[in-house]
Amino acid sequence: MELSLFKAGVAEASVIHDMQVKAFMPLLNKYQDFETNPANETVERIIDRLKQQFTDYYIIKDSNISVGAIRIVRKDNETMLISPVFILPEHQGKGIAQSVFSIVENIYNHVAVWELATILQERGNCYLYEKLGYQQTGETKEINDRMTIVFYEKRLK
């Protein structure tokens, strides 16, 4: 595995969009969360985010092949939000996400608090984030009768 992060710009919006749809479609089919699922977002929405001053988008590459993406949102000088992060289905289960979190924490080594949210019913996601040192904040948001969003944070300082 030869992982790298490529800082994306507006030119990469359609690449991010295509990967995002592919990565999140199984969850959309499973939970029917049409309002919140990233697979339902338009490429224009991604372009809007790429233009935000407080957002950094990275394409995740393994041996120069695009395998996913991660968006880092600056909430303030010491707090960052990860939303979304995804790995294409055919590249999941290889430890890529774990490595990406490590790379991101090194890039943003001044950050004291990292935040993210995931689907409570997706035990694999919850397990991964907890293994990486994230703790549930106690805040949840019910999306529908099948799906609840759970919020996490990781305090480094």
The CATH first-level class comes to Alpha Beta
Total strand segments: 7
How many helices? The count is 4
Kindly report how far apart the N and C termini lie: 30 Å
Which value, in Å, is the CA radius of gyration? Answer: 15 Å
The CATH superfamily bears the name Gcn5-related N-acetyltransferase (GNAT)
Unreliable spans are none
Please tell me the CATH architecture by its name: 3-Layer(aba) Sandwich
Roughly what is the average pLDDT, rounded to an integer? Answer: 97
Category from helices, strands and their pairing? alpha+beta
For the record, the count of structural domains works out to 1
Features:
7-stranded mixed beta sheet; 157 residues; alpha+beta; globular; 7 strands; Aminopeptidase
Characterization of the model:
The chain is an alpha+beta fold and 157 residues long. 31% of the residues lie in helices and 37% in strands. It has one domain: 3-Layer(aba) Sandwich (Aminopeptidase). The chain has four helices and seven strands. Helix 1 packs across helix 2. It is globular and about 40 Å long.
Brief description of this entry?
This protein is an alpha+beta fold and 157 residues long. The chain contains four helices and seven strands; from the N terminus they run βααβββαβαββ.
List the helices and strands and how they pair.
Elements (H helix, E strand, L loop, with lengths): L2 E5 L5 H19 L11 H8 L4 E8 L2 E10 L4 E9 L8 H12 L5 E7 L3 H9 L3 E10 L2 E9 L2
Parallel strand pairs: 4-5
Antiparallel strand pairs: 1-2, 2-3, 3-4, 5-7, 6-7
Helix pairs in contact: 1-2
